[in-house]
Amino acid sequence: MASSLTNLVSDHLYEQRIRQDSLSVEKLATTFAPLFQSAQGDALQEALVAAGGEMGGRLMVIDEDGKVQFDSFSRLCGIRLQLPEVLSILTGGQNTAYGIHHLEGGQHSLTADAADEYVAYCTASIIGTRGRLGVLLFVAPVQEMMTSLNNVQQQLLRVFLVIATAALVVAMVFSRVITRPITALTRTIQKMGKGDLSARVKVRGSGEMRQLAESYNTMADQLERLDRSRNQFVSNASHELKTPLATMKILLESLIYQPDMPAELRAEFMQDMNHEIDRLTSIITDLLTLTQMDSRRMELHTSLVDLSELTEETLRLLTPAAEQRGQNLTGRVTPGCTLVADRSKLSQVIYNLTENGLKYTPDGGEVSVTLSVEGRTAVLTVKDNGVGIPPEDQGHIFERFYRVDKARSRETGGTGLGLSIVRQMVTLHKGQITVESAPGEGSTFIVRLPMDGKEVSAS
Ligand SMILES: Nc1ncnc2c1ncn2[C@@H]1O[C@H](COP(=O)(O)OP(=O)(O)OP(=O)(O)O)[C@@H](O)[C@H]1O
Ligand SMILES: [Mg+2]
Prior knowledge:
Blueprint: H1 2-37, H2 41-55, E1 58-63, E2 68-71, H3 84-90, E3 96-102, E4 118-128, E5 131-141, H4 143-193, H5 208-257, H6 263-294, E6 302-306, H7 307-324, E7 328-333, E8 338-342, H8 343-359, E9 366-374, E10 377-384, H9 391-394, H10 406-412, H11 418-428, E11 432-438, E12 442-450
Parallel strand pairs: 7-9
Antiparallel strand pairs: 1-2, 1-5, 3-4, 4-5, 6-8, 9-10, 10-12, 11-12
Helix pairs in contact: 1-2, 1-4, 4-5, 5-6, 6-11, 7-8, 8-11
The structure holds adenosine-5'-triphosphate and magnesium ion.
């Protein structure tokens, strides 16, 4: 671009110069023709000197043989000049010629200043009345023009160099800015791939990169949480399984090392061990249920379920246990509440909630189960007047293995899995479960199930 631009500028300058010089020289040639023809030597010489001084160059009149006849510098008279511009008129049949020449060191300059490197020769034929008389040669010093042209060229080159460098730097900076977040993300993903789940990307800037970083971090959070809860689950499960095993080992060792144990005690120990085995089995069943639901392998075996009937049935199942502890288990069930659902899972929901109500209510307490229909939603309420749940625990009771009073639950045989199973099953049925409770006053669990299969909205 720089060189083509300088070419454009120099072409324009040259052309202007050529036109100007050619025009003046042609005009002079016509003025001098009569003087040359009539051999008025002095007058011609005078005119040459005057015109040469005016044009700032050297004027020469050359005859048909190529010999200098008149010279405004009066030095080369009689010498044959073999310049291409002169020859192109004398032998080439042209009327005017122009040429710029670069004089190598030592070559004789025809201008006033011997140091000039560039000269321009402009020639025009002198036409007399009987044809061509000779050639008028104008030697113009163009050193100044060439120097300024050179300067322009260098200046332009410098400017373009600066622009190119700046463009390169800007491009590099931009590419760095664009790729840096991607590189950071890649590095973080690699870290995560190696097992460091705590790796996060720094969220910076705006637009798509920011969105990507945020989405990635959210995903990483989720993964980390999942990983942590899985670890917690495994350690809790192991702990829960260890307890009955330890109890059984003690009982068994007593039986082994005390062969003379009374038969009654022995029977009691056997009973205890049987009880622990039941407990283990129930924990393992619960765990299996939960992990099955986790891996989404649990399918709903749906059919048209009469929830009213199912509730009554579950209440009947639990009544003997309630009676044993003098508790009053009552049911207020709206008949004919049907929905398409998994019967055994809903049965487990009702059972677990009612069992909890009985378990966490002192002897002689009250547990009431209500089933009603609100629009297209079946509402199951299990209310007791038992120990209640402190507000700070209410957000956790649906977590696996979470028990409010660890010691008490151990006594009553709870593992802390019942409610998490309930919540999973309610969610599978697109329902919702909420709890209202005050310590010492009792608890109310409310389950809302859609009867038309559409998700229950938050209430
Ligand atoms: N009706 C209730 N009244 C008071 N506390 C309750 C009630 N229901 C649940 N809880 C509290 O919530 C905890 C979790 O209940 P969840 O049913 O999940 O476990 P669990 O009853 O201890 O054991 P299991 O797995 O045998 O059901 C209980 O340990 C208890 O502290
Ligand atoms: Mg329970």
